[in-house]
């Protein structure tokens, strides 16, 4: 394997970078190619020192003047002798096992392997995990759309890199990475952060400006040219260019006019495709070409033609960006509902469902959304709480919410075990999350793991549980004891944890509330009493739980039922403590980054508890920070909320249109187009309308008839009176 490091005036960081490569666990099968691209600082001296240490494994190439990073990469590829090639920027560094993990994965037949990375902000002393690939399911097409274009978090087969050359321009990675992914055989993704990227260095291209920024136009030209020749991934590459244009309009606003002009020039190519439509609907990108909104700024040929796009508050914003600068994130009004049989929702340690509802509610309020929580009495959160009355059951919830809910609510998030709120018509959208296995499923069901969804045997959505890292203490110092923490039930496998401790003669601490008294008294207690190394300490409060988790040598999770998630797994790792779990439920999914910690038998569990070299504590913590935080979980839920609300509003508009036609008779040809219930409803409406009209006509006829009869009788009376008066007069005359 060859690692290529282009160097230009990064002497301050170079030693750390090169040392991290030499410290690789498979350095014995690696070489280092350093391209000193005209550095004027002390980088040359540092390179010479490292060459002296490893003269056979380090190749150094020096240029008197700067030739550009694209040229450095091409020269490095030509000089390298490895079958696989990786890139490391000279101001970054890597984890000691990065290339071992990537190489092991590549041996399965992958031309390219992508991993996650950490962004390092030196000014603020922050290290933030970032995704090398943003979606849940990795495919080659999705990789072109959502993988990072940077070359350094990837391992390439040399034959793949030899198919193209890096352009000697700024943003050479933008011009090359999507093409390499499209040409790769079986690209793969390793969901582990292994690369440390220094984000805030002043001299980097990302933080620089100048006319060379327009090199990005050459990069896009190359991608468009490749897309027209490569029909397999044409739509994906063209949409990638569209996304880039959107990004660079904000990233380099001083050159935004050039980017808008480039988009106009290639409108016919970049405006087609399903990706464009979906991305505009989900607000992932702007509607660049006015396909969905004719008032989009680019649709005007002259900036002065746009209406009211600059006001006093946006006077310093360019006209083409004024519309988007004034847009604000939508504040949602959400109801969170939990089952009445649950414990009160609060910061105090609770079971998994109550914990997740608490975390979601707190994070939503923190982000400025309006939240109302329907929960048992005693719940304490930042949102408004509506407590349940006494003797309350799930079946009472829908009616209770209808009576007590606020006037304006966007969505109800149903966490009840029976999904009773989702089952009833509430007049507003309802999103159900299944925290436990259930027989009630919906097309929009949300599961806490892929394993839980698979066990249900239906299609649905997946949002992993998350925890707040600030609530957990971290420690690299460990004491010599094993820990089981959880409810005391047969399904939780407490007996297997005791077996492991007995076999290995290790100390075991068991903590958790007893939920099956008979099981504890007859089966567990005799074995605990007969072994001085095993201690049951009962249910533990938050402070005691923190201390146990962070100081344990290892947490045992020998659950024998199909756990939908297993919150203890991530609670232990965020504290820096490894976990050994039986391969049941979601254990393999949650521990995807550490498959060596998943066991297929009690024998394997016992062996690893004694002999397994566990991952370092900081690696375990960083893994959880990358995948299982409250922020990540709530980001996904907000996306689902907005999708659900938008779908509901579209249906509502359609219904209004149908109701508007209520008093208009449909012609037969229109009726034929309709099917099922809609057709029946319209037929009933039509017959009802006919009946109404008939009744009205009959009433009108009766009224008119009545009037006629009255007139007739009145006339008769008048005639009768006249005849009487005539008779009286005649008699008097006689």
- How much strand content do the residues show? 5-15%
The strand count comes to 22
Q: What coarse outline follows from CA principal-axis ratios?
A: flat
Radius of gyration: 36 Å
Parts with pLDDT < 50 across at least 5 consecutive residues: 294-328, 665-669
pLDDT average, as an integer? 83
The end-to-end distance, rounded to whole angstroms, is 147 Å
Question: How would you classify the quaternary structure?
Answer: single chain
Structural class determined from secondary elements: alpha/beta
- Helix fraction? 40-55%
Give the count of helical stretches.
27
Largest sheet: 9 strands, mixed
Topology of helices and strands:
Layout: E1 2-7, H1 11-22, E2 31-37, H2 43-53, E3 58-63, H3 69-79, E4 84-87, E5 93-94, H4 98-106, E6 112-121, E7 126-130, H5 140-146, E8 154-157, H6 158-161, H7 177-183, E9 188-198, H8 215-229, H9 234-251, H10 256-265, H11 267-270, H12 274-281, H13 319-325, E10 333-337, H14 352-366, E11 370-375, E12 384-387, H15 397-404, E13 411-414, H16 420-423, E14 430-434, E15 446-447, H17 450-456, E16 461-462, E17 482-485, H18 494-504, E18 508-511, H19 517-529, E19 534-536, H20 542-551, E20 554-557, H21 567-574, E21 579-582, H22 587-590, E22 598-599, H23 602-611, H24 617-627, H25 630-660, H26 668-673, H27 676-733
Parallel strand pairs: 1-2, 1-4, 2-3, 6-9, 10-11, 10-13, 11-12, 13-14, 14-15, 15-16, 17-18, 17-20, 18-19, 20-21, 21-22
Antiparallel strand pairs: 4-8, 5-9, 6-7, 6-8
How would you summarize what this structure contains?
This protein is of the alpha/beta class.
């Amino acid at each position: 394997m060859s690692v290529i490091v282009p160097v230009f005036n990064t002497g301050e960081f170079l030693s750390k970078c090169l040392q991290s490569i030499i410290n690789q666990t498979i350095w014995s099968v690696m070489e280092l190619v350093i391209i000193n691209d005209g550095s004027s600082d002390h980088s040359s001296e540092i390179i010479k020192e490292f060459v002296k240490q490893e003269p056979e494994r380090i190749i150094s190439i020096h240029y008197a003047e700067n030739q550009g990073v694209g040229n450095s990469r091409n020269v490095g590829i030509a000089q390298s002798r490895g079958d696989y090639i990786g890139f490391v920027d000279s101001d970054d560094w890597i984890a000691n096992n990065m290339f071992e993990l990537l190489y092991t994965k590549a041996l399965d037949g992958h031309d390219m392997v992508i991993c996650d990375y950490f962004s390092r902000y030196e000014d603020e002393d922050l290290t933030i995990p970032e995704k090398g690939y943003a979606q849940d399911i990795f495919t080659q097409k999705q990789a072109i759309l959502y993988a990072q274009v940077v070359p350094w978090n990837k391992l390439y087969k040399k034959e793949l890199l030899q198919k193209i050359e890096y352009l000697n321009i700024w943003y050479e990675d933008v011009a090359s990475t999507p093409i390499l992914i499209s040409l790769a055989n079986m690209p793969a993704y390793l969901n582990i952060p292994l690369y440390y990227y220094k984000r805030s260095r002043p001299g980097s291209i990302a933080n620089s400006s100048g006319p060379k920024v327009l090199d990005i136009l050459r990069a896009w030209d190359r991608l468009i040219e490749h897309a027209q020749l490569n029909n397999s991934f044409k739509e994906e590459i063209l949409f990638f260019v569209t996304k880039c244009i959107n990004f660079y309009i904000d990233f380099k606003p001083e050159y935004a006019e050039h980017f808008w002009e480039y988009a106009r020039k290639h409108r016919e190519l970049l405006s087609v495709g399903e990706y464009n439509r979906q991305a505009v609907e989900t607000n992932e990108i702007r509607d660049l070409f006015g396909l969905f909104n004719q008032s989009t700024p680019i649709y005007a040929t002259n900036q002065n033609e746009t209406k009211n796009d600059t006001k006093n508050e946006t006077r310093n914003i360019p006209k083409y960006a004024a519309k988007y600068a004034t847009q604000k994130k939508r504040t949602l009004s959400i109801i969170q509902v939990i089952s009445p049989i649950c414990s009160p929702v609060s910061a105090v340690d609770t079971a998994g469902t109550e914990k997740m509802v608490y975390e979601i509610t707190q994070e939503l309020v923190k982000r400025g959304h309006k939240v109302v929580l329907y929960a048992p009495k005693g719940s304490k959160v930042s949102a408004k709480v509506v407590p349940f009355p006494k003797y309350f059951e799930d079946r009472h919830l829908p009616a209770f919410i209808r009576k007590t809910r606020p006037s304006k609510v966007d969505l109800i998030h149903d966490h009840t075990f029976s999904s009773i709120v989702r089952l009833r018509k509430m007049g507003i959208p309802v999103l159900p999350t299944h925290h436990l296995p259930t027989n009630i499923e919906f097309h929009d069901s949300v599961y806490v793991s892929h394993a839980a969804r698979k066990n249900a045997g239906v299609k649905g959505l997946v949002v992993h549980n998350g925890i707040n890292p600030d609530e957990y203490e971290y420690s690299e110092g460990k004491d010599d004891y094993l820990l089981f923490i959880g409810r005391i039930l047969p399904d939780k496998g407490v007996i297997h944890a005791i077996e492991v401790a007995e076999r290995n003669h290790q100390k075991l601490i068991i903590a958790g509330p007893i939920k099956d008294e008979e099981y504890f008294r007859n089966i567990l207690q005799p074995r605990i009493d007969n072994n001085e190394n095993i201690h049951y300490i009962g249910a533990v409060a938050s402070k005691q739980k923190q201390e146990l988790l962070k100081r344990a040598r290892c947490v045992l999770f020998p659950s024998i039922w199909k756990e939908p998630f297993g919150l203890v797994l991530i609670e232990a790792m965020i504290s820096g403590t490894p976990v050994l779990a039986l391969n049941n439920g979601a254990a393999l999914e949650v521990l995807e980054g550490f498959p060596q910690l998943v066991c297929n038998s009690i024998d394997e569990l016992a062996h690893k508890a004694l002999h397994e070299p566990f991952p370092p504590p900081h690696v375990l913590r960083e893994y959880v920070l990358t995948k299982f935080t409250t922020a990540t979980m709530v980001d996904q839920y907000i996306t689902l909320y907005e999708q659900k609300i938008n779908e509901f509003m579209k249906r509502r508009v359609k219904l209004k249109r149908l109701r508007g036609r209520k008093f208009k008779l449909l012609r037969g040809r229109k009726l034929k187009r309709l099917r099922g219930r809609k057709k029946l409803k319209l037929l009933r409406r039509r017959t009802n309308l006919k009946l109404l009209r008939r009744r009205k006509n009959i009433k009108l006829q009766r009224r008119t008839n009545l009037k006629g009869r009255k007139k007739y009788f009145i006339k008769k009376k008048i005639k009768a009176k006249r005849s009487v008066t005539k008779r009286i007069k005649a008699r008097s005359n006689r």
